[in-house]
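Fold it.
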Amino acid sequence: MKFEVRGAFKTLEGWQKFTKVVEANNERYALEKVYSLIGSNHKVKRNLIKIEEVKQA
């Protein structure tokens, strides 16, 4: 299933909003995937990533 995850992560300039569509078996795995992607691409720790909404795409 595909999930659309919306949220924001902290940068030096402030909070940067994002929307990611990920393939996952359930909502929990979708969240883990987004934390992993944002963290690796932007060098942001999980406590600086705020998830606002997760819905099935």
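Helices lie at 27-42.
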